[in-house]
Design a protein that fits this description.
This protein is of the alpha+beta class. Among the domains are: about 5-45, no CATH class; about 95-165, no CATH class. It has six helices and six strands; from the N terminus they run E-E-E-E-H-H-H-H-H-E-E-H. It has helices at about 35-45, 50-65, 65-75, 80-90, 95-110, 145-160, and strands at about 5, 15, 20, 30-35, 125-130, 140-145. The strands form three sheets. Strands 1-2 form a two-stranded antiparallel sheet. Strands 3-4 form a two-stranded antiparallel ribbon. Strands 5-6 form a two-stranded antiparallel ribbon. The radius of gyration is 22 Å and the shape is extended. The model has no long low-confidence stretch (mean pLDDT about 90).
Length: about 170
């Protein structure tokens, strides 16, 4: 069995992991690679009529008996309960939650890219909101590794409490 396949859109020969699975196709993989599929989906959703059609369908499904039963079943699952617990625990930190969501969405949709840690150069990084969590500062971040992010947060906490900075 082949371990590579050529994409029908871009023509690149890529490993099979770069193609979505598809049971309807003889070789079990789609003809277009994942990046080309994503690009096609973005282009399709850029058409206002398509976007509005999806919203309308979604609203109708959510109001149907089947949709409501699905939602009730989902609310009994563990992932939903975890998400709800976080939502209830952090109502006082709503600006922080919104800032994190804004950064996550900006990275997801390509408006922002993750960078290496500003201190040590590690590639596993987290966004640190240096100037706070106001709407104007949501995407104004410094990328730090978890260790340096924790140190920066401790420094800010100590400064807020009047203890000076940590060295």
């Amino acid at each position: 069995m082949a371990s590579e396949q050529a994409c029908r859109s871009c023509g690149q020969v890529l490993p099979l992991e770069r193609f979505y699975r598809c049971a309807a196709v003889k070789d079990g993989r789609r003809a277009r690679c994942k990046p080309c599929c994503a690009e096609g989906q973005r282009a399709r959703l850029a058409v206002p009529a398509v976007r509005e059609g999806r919203r309308t369908y979604s609203r109708q499904w959510n109001q149907s008996l089947e949709g409501q039963a699905y939602q009730r079943a989902y609310k009994r699952t563990e992932p939903y309960r975890r998400k709800e617990k976080i939502r209830r625990v952090e109502p006082r930190n709503i600006s922080k939650v919104k800032a994190r969501t804004a950064v996550k969405d900006a990275v997801r949709y390509g408006r922002m890219t993750k960078k290496a840690c500003a201190v040590c150069g590690d590639i596993q990084t987290e966004a640190h909101h240096l100037f706070g969590y106001g709407p104007e500062d949501w995407c104004n971040v410094v990328w730090l590794c978890p260790e340096h992010h924790q140190r920066a947060e401790e420094r800010l906490r100590n400064e807020r409490e009047g203890h000076g900075t940590l060295s």
